[in-house]
Amino acid sequence: MKLKGDLYVVDKNSPLPLYYQLEEQIKKTIETEELQPGDALPSERELSESYQISRMTVRQAITNLVNKGYLFREKGKGTFVSSQKFEQNLQGLTSFTEDMKARNLVPGSKLLHFEIYPADKDIRATLSLKDEELIYKIKRLRLANNEPIAVETSYLPVSLVPGLTPDILASSLYTYIENELELTIGHASQTVEAAIVDAEDQQHLHINKGVPVLLIQRETFLENGTPLELVRSSYRADRYKFKIDIERK
Ligand code: GLP
Protein backbone atom coordinates (compact mmCIF):
# COMPACT_ATOMS: atom_id res chain seq x y z
CA MET A 1 0.00 0.00 0.00
CA LYS A 2 1.37 3.36 -1.02
CA LEU A 3 0.22 6.79 -0.10
CA LYS A 4 -0.74 8.54 -3.32
CA GLY A 5 -0.88 12.03 -4.82
CA ASP A 6 1.28 14.79 -3.47
CA LEU A 7 1.77 12.94 -0.25
CA TYR A 8 5.49 12.51 -0.43
CA VAL A 9 5.97 16.16 0.39
CA VAL A 10 6.57 17.72 3.75
CA ASP A 11 7.75 21.30 3.88
CA LYS A 12 10.96 21.47 5.86
CA ASN A 13 10.86 25.29 5.84
CA SER A 14 7.40 25.40 7.34
CA PRO A 15 7.07 26.46 10.99
CA LEU A 16 4.79 23.44 11.42
CA PRO A 17 6.59 20.46 12.96
CA LEU A 18 7.35 17.66 10.49
CA TYR A 19 5.53 15.01 12.53
CA TYR A 20 2.44 17.23 12.46
CA GLN A 21 2.61 17.69 8.69
CA LEU A 22 2.88 13.94 8.19
CA GLU A 23 0.08 13.33 10.66
CA GLU A 24 -2.21 15.71 8.73
CA GLN A 25 -1.34 14.06 5.42
CA ILE A 26 -2.11 10.57 6.67
CA LYS A 27 -5.32 11.86 8.24
CA LYS A 28 -6.34 13.36 4.90
CA THR A 29 -5.89 10.03 3.10
CA ILE A 30 -8.16 8.41 5.70
CA GLU A 31 -10.81 11.14 5.51
CA THR A 32 -10.87 11.07 1.71
CA GLU A 33 -11.04 7.25 1.91
CA GLU A 34 -7.88 6.84 -0.14
CA LEU A 35 -6.86 4.65 2.77
CA GLN A 36 -9.81 2.51 3.89
CA PRO A 37 -10.53 0.87 7.26
CA GLY A 38 -8.36 -2.23 7.58
CA ASP A 39 -5.74 -1.01 5.08
CA ALA A 40 -2.13 -1.30 6.22
CA LEU A 41 -0.03 1.83 6.51
CA PRO A 42 3.41 1.73 4.82
CA SER A 43 6.11 0.76 7.31
CA GLU A 44 7.99 3.36 9.35
CA ARG A 45 11.04 2.71 7.19
CA GLU A 46 9.11 3.24 3.93
CA LEU A 47 7.52 6.43 5.21
CA SER A 48 10.80 7.82 6.47
CA GLU A 49 12.46 7.11 3.09
CA SER A 50 9.57 8.52 1.03
CA TYR A 51 9.33 11.70 3.05
CA GLN A 52 13.05 12.02 3.76
CA ILE A 53 12.41 12.43 7.46
CA SER A 54 13.66 10.53 10.47
CA ARG A 55 11.97 7.38 11.72
CA MET A 56 11.46 9.07 15.07
CA THR A 57 9.40 11.77 13.37
CA VAL A 58 7.36 9.13 11.55
CA ARG A 59 6.83 7.23 14.81
CA GLN A 60 5.62 10.38 16.55
CA ALA A 61 3.05 11.05 13.79
CA ILE A 62 1.81 7.45 13.87
CA THR A 63 1.62 7.35 17.67
CA ASN A 64 -0.48 10.52 17.65
CA LEU A 65 -2.87 9.02 15.10
CA VAL A 66 -3.11 5.79 17.12
CA ASN A 67 -3.94 7.82 20.23
CA LYS A 68 -6.59 9.75 18.30
CA GLY A 69 -8.17 6.49 17.07
CA TYR A 70 -7.36 6.89 13.34
CA LEU A 71 -4.90 4.00 13.32
CA PHE A 72 -4.30 0.87 15.36
CA ARG A 73 -1.20 -1.26 15.77
CA GLU A 74 -1.11 -5.06 15.66
CA LYS A 75 1.91 -6.67 17.24
CA GLY A 76 4.21 -8.16 14.63
CA LYS A 77 1.88 -7.19 11.77
CA GLY A 78 2.01 -3.43 11.38
CA THR A 79 -0.22 -0.38 11.61
CA PHE A 80 -3.72 -0.30 10.13
CA VAL A 81 -6.51 2.18 9.51
CA SER A 82 -9.32 1.99 12.10
CA SER A 83 -13.00 1.93 11.23
CA GLN A 84 -14.70 5.30 11.51
CA LYS A 85 -16.47 5.82 14.82
CA PHE A 86 -20.25 5.78 15.00
CA GLU A 87 -21.45 9.19 16.01
CA GLN A 88 -24.53 9.74 18.15
CA ASN A 89 -26.09 13.10 18.64
CA LEU A 90 -26.84 13.60 22.31
CA GLN A 91 -29.80 15.88 21.62
CA GLY A 92 -32.49 13.37 20.69
CA LEU A 93 -34.04 10.71 22.90
CA THR A 94 -33.52 7.84 20.49
CA SER A 95 -33.29 4.07 20.81
CA PHE A 96 -30.32 1.97 19.81
CA THR A 97 -32.36 0.56 16.91
CA GLU A 98 -33.17 4.06 15.62
CA ASP A 99 -29.55 5.20 16.01
CA MET A 100 -28.23 2.32 13.93
CA LYS A 101 -30.92 2.55 11.25
CA ALA A 102 -30.20 6.27 10.87
CA ARG A 103 -26.67 5.25 9.88
CA ASN A 104 -27.86 2.53 7.48
CA LEU A 105 -26.48 -0.12 9.81
CA VAL A 106 -28.39 -3.27 10.75
CA PRO A 107 -29.16 -3.19 14.50
CA GLY A 108 -28.84 -6.41 16.44
CA SER A 109 -29.38 -7.65 19.98
CA LYS A 110 -28.17 -10.67 21.85
CA LEU A 111 -29.91 -11.31 25.15
CA LEU A 112 -27.33 -12.08 27.85
CA HIS A 113 -29.58 -12.03 30.92
CA PHE A 114 -33.33 -11.80 31.61
CA GLU A 115 -34.70 -11.83 35.12
CA ILE A 116 -37.73 -10.64 37.11
CA TYR A 117 -37.18 -9.90 40.80
CA PRO A 118 -38.25 -7.52 43.59
CA ALA A 119 -36.39 -4.23 43.18
CA ASP A 120 -33.51 -3.57 45.55
CA LYS A 121 -33.06 -0.29 47.35
CA ASP A 122 -31.09 1.84 44.88
CA ILE A 123 -33.16 0.79 41.86
CA ARG A 124 -36.34 1.38 43.88
CA ALA A 125 -35.27 4.92 44.59
CA THR A 126 -34.38 5.69 40.96
CA LEU A 127 -37.58 4.21 39.55
CA SER A 128 -39.74 5.60 42.43
CA LEU A 129 -41.07 2.14 43.26
CA LYS A 130 -42.90 0.91 46.31
CA ASP A 131 -41.26 -1.84 48.38
CA GLU A 132 -41.01 -5.25 46.76
CA GLU A 133 -42.30 -4.15 43.36
CA LEU A 134 -41.16 -6.46 40.59
CA ILE A 135 -38.67 -5.25 38.01
CA TYR A 136 -37.01 -6.70 34.93
CA LYS A 137 -33.25 -6.84 34.76
CA ILE A 138 -32.26 -7.18 31.14
CA LYS A 139 -28.74 -7.40 29.82
CA ARG A 140 -28.25 -7.18 26.07
CA LEU A 141 -25.27 -7.06 23.75
CA ARG A 142 -26.06 -4.47 21.08
CA LEU A 143 -24.63 -4.96 17.60
CA ALA A 144 -24.26 -2.93 14.42
CA ASN A 145 -23.86 -5.02 11.27
CA ASN A 146 -23.07 -7.91 13.63
CA GLU A 147 -20.24 -6.02 15.28
CA PRO A 148 -20.52 -5.68 19.10
CA ILE A 149 -20.93 -2.02 20.07
CA ALA A 150 -22.33 -1.91 23.60
CA VAL A 151 -23.43 -3.97 26.58
CA GLU A 152 -26.64 -2.56 28.01
CA THR A 153 -28.25 -3.40 31.36
CA SER A 154 -31.82 -2.12 31.79
CA TYR A 155 -34.15 -2.09 34.78
CA LEU A 156 -37.89 -1.51 34.19
CA PRO A 157 -40.97 -1.95 36.41
CA VAL A 158 -43.01 -5.02 35.37
CA SER A 159 -46.29 -3.24 36.20
CA LEU A 160 -45.51 -0.48 33.69
CA VAL A 161 -44.14 -2.70 30.91
CA PRO A 162 -46.10 -5.97 31.16
CA GLY A 163 -45.53 -8.90 28.84
CA LEU A 164 -41.88 -8.31 28.00
CA THR A 165 -40.28 -11.50 26.63
CA PRO A 166 -36.85 -12.48 25.32
CA ASP A 167 -38.40 -12.56 21.83
CA ILE A 168 -39.47 -8.93 22.04
CA LEU A 169 -36.01 -7.97 23.31
CA ALA A 170 -34.41 -9.47 20.22
CA SER A 171 -35.64 -6.34 18.45
CA SER A 172 -36.62 -2.91 19.82
CA LEU A 173 -37.75 -2.33 23.40
CA TYR A 174 -38.89 1.22 22.57
CA THR A 175 -41.03 -0.05 19.64
CA TYR A 176 -42.78 -2.46 22.01
CA ILE A 177 -43.34 0.24 24.63
CA GLU A 178 -44.68 2.77 22.11
CA ASN A 179 -46.50 0.61 19.56
CA GLU A 180 -47.78 -2.34 21.62
CA LEU A 181 -48.26 -0.75 25.04
CA GLU A 182 -49.07 2.66 23.53
CA LEU A 183 -47.08 4.53 26.18
CA THR A 184 -45.47 7.87 25.33
CA ILE A 185 -41.82 8.20 26.19
CA GLY A 186 -41.18 11.78 27.30
CA HIS A 187 -37.68 12.68 28.39
CA ALA A 188 -34.49 11.25 29.84
CA SER A 189 -31.51 12.34 31.80
CA GLN A 190 -28.21 10.87 30.72
CA THR A 191 -24.62 10.89 31.94
CA VAL A 192 -21.52 9.82 30.04
CA GLU A 193 -18.22 8.96 31.73
CA ALA A 194 -15.02 7.17 30.87
CA ALA A 195 -14.09 3.86 32.48
CA ILE A 196 -11.92 0.83 31.95
CA VAL A 197 -13.84 -2.17 30.62
CA ASP A 198 -14.58 -4.91 33.16
CA ALA A 199 -13.65 -8.53 32.51
CA GLU A 200 -17.15 -9.66 31.51
CA ASP A 201 -17.96 -6.82 29.10
CA GLN A 202 -14.48 -7.09 27.63
CA GLN A 203 -15.31 -10.58 26.35
CA HIS A 204 -18.71 -9.59 24.96
CA LEU A 205 -17.30 -6.51 23.23
CA HIS A 206 -14.27 -8.33 21.81
CA ILE A 207 -11.80 -5.77 23.12
CA ASN A 208 -8.55 -6.08 25.02
CA LYS A 209 -8.15 -5.89 28.78
CA GLY A 210 -7.71 -2.36 30.11
CA VAL A 211 -9.29 -0.65 27.09
CA PRO A 212 -11.46 2.43 27.82
CA VAL A 213 -15.23 2.35 27.37
CA LEU A 214 -17.90 5.03 27.63
CA LEU A 215 -20.26 4.37 30.52
CA ILE A 216 -23.67 5.79 29.84
CA GLN A 217 -26.46 5.93 32.37
CA ARG A 218 -29.94 6.91 31.23
CA GLU A 219 -33.02 7.44 33.34
CA THR A 220 -36.05 7.65 31.10
CA PHE A 221 -39.52 8.96 31.97
CA LEU A 222 -42.92 8.72 30.33
CA GLU A 223 -44.59 11.92 29.17
CA ASN A 224 -46.58 12.02 32.45
CA GLY A 225 -43.36 11.90 34.48
CA THR A 226 -43.49 8.22 35.55
CA PRO A 227 -39.98 6.68 35.65
CA LEU A 228 -39.75 4.06 32.89
CA GLU A 229 -36.22 2.68 32.84
CA LEU A 230 -32.78 2.87 34.34
CA VAL A 231 -30.15 1.80 31.83
CA ARG A 232 -26.41 1.38 32.31
CA SER A 233 -24.39 0.77 29.17
CA SER A 234 -20.74 0.29 28.25
CA TYR A 235 -20.01 1.51 24.75
CA ARG A 236 -16.79 0.70 22.90
CA ALA A 237 -14.90 3.99 23.01
CA ASP A 238 -12.91 2.99 19.93
CA ARG A 239 -16.09 2.65 17.87
CA TYR A 240 -18.46 5.20 19.30
CA LYS A 241 -18.44 8.92 19.88
CA PHE A 242 -21.08 11.37 21.08
CA LYS A 243 -21.83 14.67 19.46
CA ILE A 244 -23.38 17.71 21.10
CA ASP A 245 -24.48 20.71 19.04
CA ILE A 246 -24.21 23.83 21.13
CA GLU A 247 -25.44 27.34 20.60
CA ARG A 248 -24.19 30.58 22.05
CA LYS A 249 -27.24 32.37 23.28
C1 GLP B 1 -30.64 3.06 23.87
C2 GLP B 1 -30.82 3.65 25.24
C3 GLP B 1 -31.55 2.73 26.21
C4 GLP B 1 -32.79 2.16 25.58
C5 GLP B 1 -32.47 1.51 24.25
C6 GLP B 1 -33.70 0.98 23.57
O1 GLP B 1 -29.62 2.13 23.83
N1 GLP B 1 -29.54 4.03 25.82
O2 GLP B 1 -31.90 3.48 27.34
O3 GLP B 1 -33.37 1.20 26.44
O4 GLP B 1 -31.85 2.45 23.41
O5 GLP B 1 -33.28 0.43 22.36
P1 GLP B 1 -34.12 -0.53 21.47
O6 GLP B 1 -35.47 0.11 21.27
O7 GLP B 1 -33.36 -0.67 20.22
O8 GLP B 1 -34.27 -1.84 22.22
- Report strand %: 25-35%
Uncertain regions spanning at least 5 consecutive residues? none
Distance between the termini: 48 Å
The share of residues in helices is 25-40%
- Sheet with the most strands? 6 strands, antiparallel
Which molecules are bound besides the chains? Answer: 2-amino-2-deoxy-6-O-phosphono-alpha-D-glucopyranose
Q: List the total number of helices.
A: 8
Mean pLDDT over all positions? 90
Radius of gyration: 23 Å
> What is the string of SSEs from the N terminus onward?
HHHEEEHEHEEHHEHEEE
Structural class: alpha+beta
Q: What is the count of β-strands? A: 10
How would you write the strand order of the largest sheet? Answer: 4-5-6-9-8-7
Bulk shape: elongated
Write the layout of secondary structure elements.
Elements lengths: L17 H14 L12 H8 L3 H13 L3 E4 L3 E4 L4 E4 L6 H7 L4 E12 L2 H6 L7 E11 L2 E11 L8 H4 L3 H8 L4 E12 L2 H7 L6 E11 L4 E10 L3 E4 L6
Parallel strand pairs: 3-10
Antiparallel strand pairs: 1-2, 4-5, 5-6, 6-9, 7-8, 8-9
Helix pairs in contact: 1-3, 2-3
The structure holds 2-amino-2-deoxy-6-O-phosphono-alpha-D-glucopyranose.
2-amino-2-deoxy-6-O-phosphono-alpha-D-glucopyranose (GLP) binds next to α4, β6, α7, β8 and β9.
